[in-house]
Amino acid sequence: MLPEAVAAMCEALSRTGNASSLHSAGRRARRDVEESRERIAAAVGARPSEVVLTTGGTESDNLAVKGLFWSRNAADPRRVRVLVPGIEHHAVLDSALWLAEHSGAQVELLAVDGAGRVQPETLRAALAAVPETVALVSVMWANNEVGTVNPIRELAEVAHDFDVPLHTDAVQAVGILPVDFAASGVDALTLTGHKLGGPYGAGALLLGRTVELTPLLHGGGQERDVRSGTLDTPAVVGLATAVELSVADAPRRAAMLSGLRDDLIGKVRATVGDATLNGDPGTGEIDGGPSRLPGNAHLSFPGCEGDSLLMLLDAHGIECSTGSACTAGVAQPSHVLLAMGADEATARGSLRFSLGHTSGPEDVDAVAAVIGQVVERARRAGVSR
Amino acid sequence: MRVLAAMSGGVDSAVAAARAVDAGHHVVGVHLALSETPAALRGGSRGCCSKEDAADARRAADVLGIPFYVWDFAARFSADVVDDFVASYAAGETPNPCLRCNEKIKFSALLDRALGLGFDAVCTGHYAQLRQGELSRAVDVDKDQSYVLAVLTAHQLRHAMFPLGDTPKPAVRAEAAARGLRVADKPDSHDICFIPSGDTRAFLTARIGTRPGAIVDTSGAELGRHDGVHGFTVGQRKGLGVDAPAADGRPRYVLGIEPVSGTVRVGPVEALDVHAIDAAAAVWSAGAAPAEPFACTVQVRAHGGLAPAVAHPGVDGRLRVELGEPLRGVAPGQAVALYDGDVVRGSARITAAH
Asked: What CATH code is assigned to A3-244?
């Protein structure tokens, strides 16, 4: 966490008061919450009333996908289709699949290109066929595994051409890419604290003022009646501090991280000639920002098992990840790479290196120093199936 | 040494890993995901295949302060152990899947990968002793698992580590508690880990189907019908499905299974007596096959079934065992393990009993 967010949160922790209460302690807490809401809104181009505070990305994604579906389907039962690309985070993907199993939804996986991007014409074609049957579209702002940024503003325009709302999971984008809720035109946007230097368990769903949404949690009617539950005031204060700081500092960090990332990719590929970069190369521009997440390097190493690479790098003090893990911790072939058309062996032989505000050139050099021997050893250990 | 500790989530493998750490080795914990459809929580007495077991293993590794990974061997396990188990029953044999798992997964697929990644040994919580590559029985005779390890080759034994062989099980539990391992009082696992219901016959029927055949007595007279030879094992007395009592009123036992015709032969208990065993695919713990016949003690199933014998190593991994006293319940598909006192000399797969 950012030290400023820790300090703000610790200070708030020592105060008592329920932001829903009327007494003076409650008023003080409410002031903390509402000021935080205003700071978050200002940082991401939203109005304070559009900030629905949640416990983070998973809750915001569930609330957006299920809430939009239920409300739109209740208003017109013909609206059963949920359009999502296969590269979505499981919080979106599994919410959609749950709706298919339990609420009569029909999930349509939008095709992505080789970089993992949803092209506007793909969405247009999917919508143009019977648009009145579409409940919602959800496309992530930037992919957490391969780093590819989607043209969200354009996709929202396409959705709105057919009067269909669009949700975007912007967990990876806020605090590093230029994200402006109003300018993007999206109807709902997920952000979370721990990805931008804020606390775990604090996030928000930005929700347009005119967007109808059926709640997941019922109770005291907090947060526009959309999300009941007593707010965690200290976490909200920590979240607001982190959002504000990370957004203000984003251009500097983005430049620093993309430089490190390109250096990392170059050095790895200089040592391991057949390693390939997955996702967008990062040279383009989308909505005033880079076309790839600045701190993301996702590489495939032919003939290697991702698990082996992970373990060998870990032994050298280098922490990276192979994609998604289920609760048993069994590494699955990345569903993102599979959706991008990769075969299973390639998907299994891939690693993501994430760079952040604590990363420096010495970290890149540490990877470069060992990646050759690690890949060689992983190849010798072979592919286990 | 760099040691890879296979951690099932049970108390034994957790303490084995702890002892490897104490011995000064560089230890990494690995849980083998063996089920393609793991349950969230452990059910009944099976203690290795649920997500809860993986979490127990991870928790133990965290307490020991060692790196921990979950490796997916589900496809290999399914092909090399489960399919082999089903095929063996369909062929009228009685397989031992734990032995097959040691042979094909833990000390083959896992060991190969460990060696490839730069490890020197695989450490497990099996109860057996290993000194300078020589495998022998555990001091806790009730827990001794040398029988299901007798299938390991000299190469595999050189890269194995069984730290629990010198300790009785209750002491292992006490040690786990003293080390702060939450699995200290986790129940022992029983039965077959990949048959969660415990109903082996139903598991086999679902995969093999119904293959009716005759139940005959020693004279060849048909006594009844059955739904498939996989429901029977040599020495079995209960559940034969023959209503009429024997002429002499004595219980009947399965004497033999003829898989091609699907005939199950039953008869009196003394007809179970076996005086010689033929076996194949012999493995010699010291490497090469002994040149001469030698006296030994044989064990023909996981618990019990011991007899003095003379082993006659043959060609192409074949083995003939002449028993010094008769044994009952010798089932093709099981292993015959050969011991010199408590030391394992080798093993082979039983193909016929006489």
From this structure: 3.40.640.10
